[in-house]
Every structure is written in structure tokens, then in C-alpha cells.
């Protein structure tokens, strides 16, 4: 009995040596970012390949010279065909499981986002977790802009947008799984961060260095690009449409013209849509927490004054952003979703009129409740 | 064959949680999402009504049957022929159970982790493992479950918790967007999973005493929760339209699970969960078949089990494509399953009302 058991175990170990699916990491091209463009009926795939030495920042040795980024390009009538067209010249096995960011070009977003996303996900190697971005620039330009001081490229905003979001919540970074709601849900608008590169901020050894930067968003609804959301429109969206808002500056102008800067650190909104009238009326309540980061020369100004000014400014921002978005028929605050989920029958009825629902909506009441938490290192008058 | 000491009640419930849990937690979810989409979770809630009725029937019947083996019990009440018929029908049923579980598991491995490994290799290894368990008997399976299940449950909670960042439960609404029809059809599919609760009949003969009312109720409740958990998870994480086209929604939930910046993928844990479930389930089915046919011939039981295993391996590899399999399951197997178990439970409950023909003890 014991002998036969031992033989059985030995036989099993024979199976192990087969290991049909064994892959050795040094023989794999790990793609870290993927770009999808669409031109004349064909999908164009850009892939960003990193050297292993670049992924882990090595201790002791100081890397000199530019970070090594290679960019591959393939094309095909389907996403998978385009991915496959990269393989013949790739020397080794190419792996997509570790893709951390996907960038969609505007041409793709306008027409074929749903097909592209379906293609990427069905292709089983890609996950729902990579960050997603839109861009109107050349995707290779974005992939080749590297991080500061030639650090590991994995530390760039493209591959890890969360770090910057924690210091400057300009636009909420989203993953494929969040984008899915904008692609497949009937009444949801997702804000897809818009990435571009700039040479205006940093110079290295006197030469301008290209760095990526988030500059706005595309409004994605029902799988189509509904238009650009610029930073002015984001101003209002930040309080209402974002799921998370960690910190963002807000500069007010006092009566005498001196500027005061606050940091908004928390925002919770309650949106109601009253749909019994001909035009659905929107009521928004926002509670905001902030602290004063710079009162500058504005001596003698009281917290109560700043509080009041901030409330007014935020209400104004919310209204302006709403109007600007409505003019472009973008449902910036996801008001349609509210109707769709809470008053489904009414939503159906309004939809049957064949007009974009947002063009019927009216912003009725906006209530902002500001809570100033502290004034940083300096004291401030209460009243 | 059944050596004392017998499995404890806790071990019995753990065995059933693995055996039935994998159906409700994994196999049924893609069907349910495809049929009822966003309302799938509502179907599950509604299915509580037929499920409660069936649980009561099973509870009643099982209190009459006690720890007696079913064929013997039927023979005492209805005679030889119905008992034989019952044995044949149940053999087919459990054989199909083992077959479909093996097929789904092997195919899942092929699609996800081992695309280049021949299905024959995975099927063979898994079948050998299950055969080993089956040869050892129900006691071994029960003890193994006691070891496997705690980690399976722990991992389940892990994936539920780390995925909270992706969950938006407002996606569960609006209800009844497509009317009542898909919801009602969803109830049927939910039932086909939940009704497997009647596996209890086939486990109790191995116990010292039947499960009492409280234990039956707790187990039913756990089973219900097992169905609801990954289903609402899939809807809230992916949105119902995406979840409805996924082949393995429960596994997709694993694919997004990770924590922190440096651990971005932990889906390999799902292999442990899936294999624990299907291994216990296949062994369980084989044991039930083997112990139902008691033939005094020497080495009968191992020969029967080995024969079954030898048939199952090629069946799980070469019978149909996964697309056909999915179609068969959703179109025929799940609904038939639900009606079949319902019918069987009704018959058993009805028979329980009568006293045995021969003089014998009835509890």
C-alpha cells in the first residue's frame, strides 16, 4: 500500500515537469500601458513596454540617462487582431495582464468605445482594474513622456494617478470597471479623465521635459463620447459628480480685492429631481468642509465672512458648470441616472420625447453649507 | 463501509456547504444574470418562498426518514420496484452532477489559468483526487470539508471586503425594468440551485442522528445568503449588462480584487475555493452512487467507483464545447433540475406520511 502510494506521488511529479503553462518572467514582455486609436476602419494599438530594471528602482546604483520606454504599434480590424499584429516582431511572449493604464484616443471614443472595451475585456488577459484615460493628442507622445528624474515610469501619473489625486483632486481617476457604467448602463454619464502632455512645467538640465498631466474629462454616456468637460465645468462637478474628493484649492476674492485661498477637503451632495412638472426641477444640497490655507494680507477678515463668500462662490460654480454642461447636452451631475433609478416610469415617458433628457432639466435650488474647520498655522478672527 | 465514529453534524453541514455552495455561489450565477439581469437578486429574494416550502417538506420527510438509507426506506414502504427505480434515477442524477461539475471546473481552468495545458491533464488529476476521496468514503469527505471550508469562507469574505471600493449598490435599481417575466424565470433558476438542499437526504444516513430543525433552518439560511452574495456583488461592481455577458461572474469578482499599490492581483486564491467546492461535490456524488448499490461481491465498491471515474474523464473533456454546455445548462438542465428535485421532494414527503408496510421502527 505504502509503496504504491509512493509510486503514485512520483508519477504525479512527472506531470509537474511538463508544466505546459509555465512561463519564465525574464522571457516575457510586460506591457504596462495600452493605447487604442481608431483610423479608417482599423483599430490601432500602442503598447508601452518597460525594462524590468526600470520597474523596480534599484537601490545603490544611480540610473543615468533617460528612462527606457519602448512603444509598439499594431493594427487590425478588431482589437484582438491589432494586439496579435504586435507579436511577430516582439521576440518573446507578450503579456497584457499587468497593463496598468489604457488610453483611448478621441477618434475611438467618438465612435467605437463599446467595441473596444468589449474586445479588451473578452481577450481575457486584460482586467477591469487598469486606469483609463482619454486624449486628443498623439498616444505615443503620452507614452514616451517619462517621470521626473528618470524614476521608475511606474511612478508617473499615467500609471499611478492616485498619488496626485490625493494632493490635487482635479479629476477623479477611474478604472475600466467604473467606465463600464458609462458604456453599458442606460442613463449614466462617466467622466473619463483627459490626459495630455506638457513641456511647460518642468525643465531638466535646461531642456523642457515632457510630462503628462490631467486637463479635463470626456463625458461618456451609453458608450459614446458626449463632449469635453473642461476645468471650468469640473469646478461644479467636483462637489457633486465625484465619488471622492480629497483636497482641492478654492480662491475667493474679498470685497477689497484681496484673494484668500481655501482647501476643500470634503464634499457631500444630495441631489433631488422633482419630475412631476413639465420640466424636471433639480434641487442640490452640498455640505462642504474646508480650511483656510492662505489669508495673506487680508488682516481683520473674519471666518464668518470667508464662510459666506465661499458658499456664494460654490453655489455660483455649481450653477455655472450646470449651465455650461447643459448647453453642450452633457449630463454632468448624473441627474438622468437619478430619474432612471428612482422614478423609472417618468424617465421612460420623458425619454420617449426623443430629446436629450438633460436639455429639459432645470436647476432650481442650490444650497451650500460650508464648514470651515481650521485656518492652518495662523489664527483668524471668528466674527 | 461506514466506520464509526460518524461525522459530526457540523462536518455534515460543512460538506453540504461545499457541495451545494459551489452551485449557488458559482455555477448558477451566469445563468441567473443572463435571464434576469438587474432583477436577478430580486428573483433570489422571491425564490425564498418556494425554497421555504421545500425546506419544510424536506425537514418533515427527513424527520421521518431519520438516518435510514433512502432506497431501503423506500423499499420498506413502497416495495422493491419503486426502490430500484429510485436507485436508477438517482444514479443518473448524481452521475450528471459529477459530470457537469467536472466539466465546468476543467473548462474554467482552461479558460483562465491553464490555456496551454490539455484539459485531459487537468481533468485526470482532479478526477484522481475525487476518486481518492470517494474510495475513502463519506467520513473522509466530511473531515476534509472541515479542513477546506474555513479558508474558503475566509477568502470569500476577503474578496467581498476588498471589492467594496468597486461596489455601488444603487445599481441594483430600478426594479422590474423588463416587467415580471424575467424575474419569474429567474426564480426557477434560483430554485434549481437552492433545491439541492435535498442532498441532505443522502448525507444523513452517514450521521448518528438526523439534523434537527434549528440546524436545517440555519443551513437553509446560509445557502440563501451564499446565492445572494456574489450575485448582488456582480451587479453592483460590474453593472448588470456587463455581468450578464460574463462567463464566470464570480471569478471576475476575484480578478478585480487586490489591495494596495503593490498587490494588484489575488485571483489565484479562487483556484483554492473552486477546487475545494468541486472536489467535494464530485466525491460526494460518486459516494452516493456507490453506496446506493450494495452488492456483496468482493471489491465491488472500488470497481464501481473506478469505472465511473474512467467514464467521467473523457466525458468532461471531449463531449461538447463550452458554448454548447452553457446553452444546455441554461436552456434545459437548470430548469429540469428544479422541477425534478421539487417532484422528488414531494414524493418523499408524501411517502413519509404513510407507515411502513412491514413491521419496522419508525421514528
Automatic annotation (TrEMBL), chain A:
It is found in: Membrane. Residues 21-196 form the Spore germination protein N-terminal domain. InterPro entries: GerAC_N, Spore_GerAC-like, Spore_GerAC-like_C, Spore_GerAC_C_sf. It holds the Pfam family Spore_GerAC_N. Its main location: membrane. One of its GO terms (cellular component) is membrane. This is Ger(X)C family spore germination protein. Belongs to the GerABKC lipoprotein family. GO terms for biological process: spore germination. The lineage of its organism: Bacteria, Bacillati, Bacillota, Bacilli, Bacillales. Keywords: Germination, Lipoprotein, Membrane, Palmitate, Signal. Signal peptide: none annotated. Residues 251-351 form the Spore germination GerAC-like C-terminal domain. It is a lipid-anchor. It comes from Paenibacillus mellifer.
Automatic annotation (TrEMBL), chain B:
Its main location: membrane. One of its GO terms (biological process) is spore germination. Coiled coil: none annotated. InterPro entries: Spore_GerAB. It is a multi-pass membrane protein. It comes from the Bacteria. It is found in: Membrane. Keywords: Germination, Membrane, Transmembrane, Transmembrane helix, Transport. The chain crosses the membrane at residues 12-35, 41-60, 81-101, 113-135, 147-166, 186-204, 216-236, 271-290, 302-321, 333-354. Belongs to the amino acid-polyamine-organocation (APC) superfamily. Spore germination protein (SGP) (TC 2.A.3.9) family. This is Endospore germination permease. It comes from Paenibacillus mellifer.
